[in-house]
Structures
1.
Amino acid sequence: MAPFDLDACIAQLLRKQLLHEALLREICAKTKEVLMRESNVVHVSAPVTVVGDIHGIGGYAPHTNYLFLGDYVDRGLFSVETISLLTCLKLRWPDRVQLIRGNHESRAVTQTYGFYTECVRKYGGSHVWTYFTDMFDFLTLSVVIDDRIFCVHGGLSPSIHSIDQIKVVDRFRGASCYYARDHAQLTHCAEIPHEGPMADLVWSDPDPEKEDFAISPRGAGYTFGSGVVYKFLETNKMSHILRAHQLCMEGYTSLFDEHLSTVWSAPNYCYRCGNSASILEVGPGGSMFFNVFQAAPENERDGPSHQTAQNAGGKLPEYFL
Amino acid sequence: MSFSRRRLSVSSTRSDSPTVFTVVPKADSEEWVSAWKQVLAKELIDSPVVEVDADTSVEDACETLLSKDLQCLAVRMPHERSPQTVPFYGLFDFADVNAFLTLAATRHKISTDELREKLRVQDILKAAREGKVPVYLVSMLIQSPSSPSEYLGIVSDRALLSWLTNYAQRTPNLLKYLSAPLSTLPLPSMYLYMSVIAARASDTVLDAMKLMSDEGVSSVAVVDDETGGLLSAVSVTDIGKVVAPAQSNQILSTPLKQLVARIKEPDGSTDGVDKFPVYSVTPNSTLFYTMQKLLATNAHRVFVTEESPMSSSPTFSSMAPTNLCGIVSVVDGTSQLTPLVPCLLLTHSHHPSPPPPIPSRRAHIRTRLGSVGSFEGFQVRWAERVPVPEG
């Protein structure tokens, strides 16, 4: 295939036009190569803009360094455009854009919660879904900002006490070597298992009422309490845990004496929750500022028929195109 | 699969004392049983007894189950039946809803000969032609005490499991026993490598309903067409929630994949708490972990799946080898305390080779005597499936 123009692709996506299927295949393949070289724990420096769950609401372009905490797809109506854009941004600026894997970056979940259906609807088949879910297998699991702030999609794991343990998880092996395309061949893929450290990192939730770990009602991962958080921060000499994964009506929450924060970036989730959303700016001195915004008025009705998800009201246009 | 692992022999006694396992020191098991014996049923009540009249329509009864978020209703005695000393005719739950809907969808396939033998089915079809099917025809018969004392409430199987889990947490020797991996435990009702009742994602909703009704189970696993991997599960409760209120029959022919998406879609759409598409454990998970997971997720069952490739596995009819290798339900979690399964345990304790599949035992405590499609035939089928002990 002839070399493609990434900037043109990005511009096209910002105009809300889908990329051609063959082009997406190429982009995903190249992005996989970039992701493959990343550790399970990627180290970055502030200033960084941190974005929580997006869930197919809309798209962005980087003016600063960006860290996305996962859950790019499902639920919203623009999952394909969103993940296409993020993938292009990652490929175009691999050191300025970090993409962490969320629990929705998985085959099982996307077949249930909307992304698969959207791919088939917009592209007439499931190839695009395959390209993206294959690429998801290569997304990193966590990021550390300035050696101080540990960022992950879900939360902590009883099997992980130190960050070094995350580094040795084989995220490319995952769980599902059993997938047999036919009786003779086993196809390798790295779907998120439903148990173990990889699952815990993307599925766990903090529980302010508890001290320790407990089995999560979500059916994967754990809930973890204050004792676990403080011990993890102390062991790893960190000051903060940043994560997403849980809806916050005000766009963000802080727990455990502000040692853990949740960032949620999908306003009016499922077009009915009526919640605010936020984007976090981490400054070089360790400052943390949550920019809170609402869904655009058009989004508050039965679901956008306009392509207004990008202009999600409030301060957003200052930061994004 | 290899059955070279030794099946620990199980001894059991009849009704009044629960099953114990030979591997557990007698003093320990006696301690647990005596603690259990001191628990009063009323301490474990976790559901109210909600009554409906016998002639309430099946649709209205189902709606009551849904709107009040109940597991079952108590059906009052029909007026024309006497004696009136017994207040309740039976219990009505989602398994009955499923059986009824399946019958409605497949009645044209029942031959007149078959129909002649199934009196209850005839009654239902007759009532349907007259416009309304009363719930008592579809509900599971119960044996209630002859004196009409007031019913305090219902103890569900979940309440039993919850008690057992709590007790284990403060009883170190029991906790130790329960911390063995599933694959090593001799609980006969948990045939890990048996075929699990499953349907393909491309099978229809009606296919799943028929499976549940015919096999007497409350759920079926849904597996991926190509890979055979476990995708999700559909239960009789889902049928009650999605199929029963449906306006047309079209839903019966939709593929299971779509039904699953419809069922899951509300999960997390108002509180943002998305759930894992299917609840499962591995053969290496401990029984205690499995029990805790059942309680935490509020599920009736979890599936057992292999994480690593299986070189040979039981196949389900013509499907590709699946990673699905077993199922553990709330019933299994409490089976060591409940004296309801001793006859089956006794039967299998001397069976050296893999026992034949008995899928209906998974729903044993809520036995599908009310399963309309096979009501009169149920007893016969059950007897056919129980193997004859050797020696």
2.
Amino acid sequence: MKWSEFFVTGEPMIYGAMVSIVLVSLAILVGLTYFKKWGYLWREWLTTVDHKRIGVMYIIAALIMLFRGGIDALMMRTQLAAPEMKFLDAQHYNEVFTTHGVIMILFMAMPFVIGIMNVVIPLQIGARDVAFPRLNAVSFWMFFAGAMLFNISFVIGGSPDAGWSAYFPLASLEFSPTVGNNFYSLALQISGVGTLMTGINFIVTILKMRAPGMKLMRMPMFTWSVLITNVIIVFAFPVLTVALALMMFDRIFGSQFFTMSNGGMDMLWANLFWVWGHPEVYIVVLPAFGIFSDIISTFSKKNLYGYKSMVVSMLAIMLLSFLVWAHHFYTMGAGAMVNGFFSITTMAIAVPTGVKIFNWLFTLRKGKISFTTPMLYAMGFIPIFTIGGVTGVMLAMASADYQYHNTMFLVAHFHYVLIPGTVFGVLAGMHYWFPKIFGFRLNEKLGKSAFWLIIVGFNVAFMPLFFLGLQGMTRRQYTYSESTGFGPLNMIATVGAFVLAIGFVVLVYNFYWSFRHSPRNEGGDPWDARTLEWSTPSPVPVYNFARVPEVHEQDAYWYSKKKNVPLYSGEYESIHMPNNSGQPFILGIVMFLLGFFLVFSWFIPAIIMGVVTVIMLAWRSFERDHGYHISAKEVMATENKLRGDSV
Amino acid sequence: MARLFPVRHVMGYIFSLVLSLVALGVVFWDLNVTAGLTILTVCAVIQASLQLVVFMHIGETSNKRSLYLNIILAVFVGVVTIFGTLFTMIWGFR
């Protein structure tokens, strides 16, 4: 292989990206050395097994990926701003929309959701960590290895270019001969294994580690949503893993699962992809439902309306999410029976979702509402998500779908669902739980400016796409002629996309501003909230709860505040904590290299990395690690310092 | 010695490898479809039971209700995936 094939060449923008990657990496290395932060980075972050730190790392990675995917989006919008633009060529455009999709779903939405889960769930159920802290670190580093492997594809080897759904036969070796789709297959397998382990970890955590008295029907709604989400993860992700493995066999080892000859079946890929892909939609949207439930109830000063129906509707969504996948390919040639069946199941999902919408509205009714930044995101979510949902029901009608299948109408629909549903959800959650981890709130004024820029930019960017779609503009087309008349609406959409981008810049600037100027010492409960996590001091000490709380009611902390029932009683005891470990980080590097070598079919180094992986598993099996104890005296000293001497 | 050497697990491991090799054999022996599928189905059922019983300790819990709930959900997703795929790709295909 020649170097000119190894690196992506011939594009000035790519050269710019290469230079900036090298410069930023150098700046980080020099900075770490200059400020003597290597030891700190290794001890406090890279080897940590603390769920809060892992959650923060997930969220940082997700924000970086948000900007990577966002730049892809801006490039696409620039190319489409006017007829016959020459900003990107067809091939480059294909690569950009593919990476935009994969990164936004799998390397932005997923880790953001999982990051918030990590930070919040143990705190919300009164636990000191997740059930398997070391496994949690492995999950994170597997995700990170996958994300990095996917991201280097645009300077080394070339990005995948067959869409985020990578349909065969387009994604086969015959029609996509570059290594791009190998990156897709391997990066997603590696990070998918991490996600699967997260799923198991959190199911066990929620089922086994709740504080005494917290029955299932007393759990906060976010915990419920995460439990159900993780059940979906455990049942849906194996399908993706198997499909990707078959894809890898097809592309690297010459098997014929998805080819059009020799007994292969190309459409089976689309089928398997969406068997995972539709539940995946609910994996990223259900936790956001939980976040909104908690936020709306906190800032309306009321308990959540219809708690039981919320739980039942989420269970219904979980079951239905496995029954709707064929609506992604109504036009692929299935008969009326198949399309009719999946039309009905798809429309049925609107029922439990509608129940949830009404529950949120009734929670707000006669509430004492305060419009904080997280609450604004929740308020923006309800109407926008409803538009997304209603257009979803339009798309669910199979016969009508033939008209707008794979048009910009579809693109507008899923952005109208995923951006309020997931992005607003995680941003609301981030603003809401930020003080719990860092001890100060994000600035409200900047937060609200960012919110308004984002919500206005979002609607200006995506509302025109509904009309463009109905006029016949297909998705993934890289240019159009002036006579189509698509020009003006596309220009409006592009302007909106840039407003949206400015909103995200303000959002990130808010971290910097608040870090410098936000008031500290606001106590553990700055929002006057309802659930257990707010009964701990902020920032939360490493052991979370000095004494294990006792739960008597839903909204345990609110109950304890109003009825003056103490959550904590008894003496401080010594606390058993897990040790940090460098193994998950090293395993992440090994998996990254294994994936990288397989992408280029360099089998000897790949086999070596496979052997190293087995050695690391064996090493872990024979390791004895009993953790350490924090003495009762030390716990008492920390608590007195954090809470003042009153407790 | 019996406590130090996990005979049950090592045997389970070897047996699962043997089952995988038998399944691979279907490709190399060039069997007809019926014989091949029979061997694959039998191997798959034994393999799945082996993994569940030996390595995942199914049935070692006292909480039978959650166990059955789990199995029901797993069977539901499995049946939906397999028969749903046959439905969309073959039986209901024009």
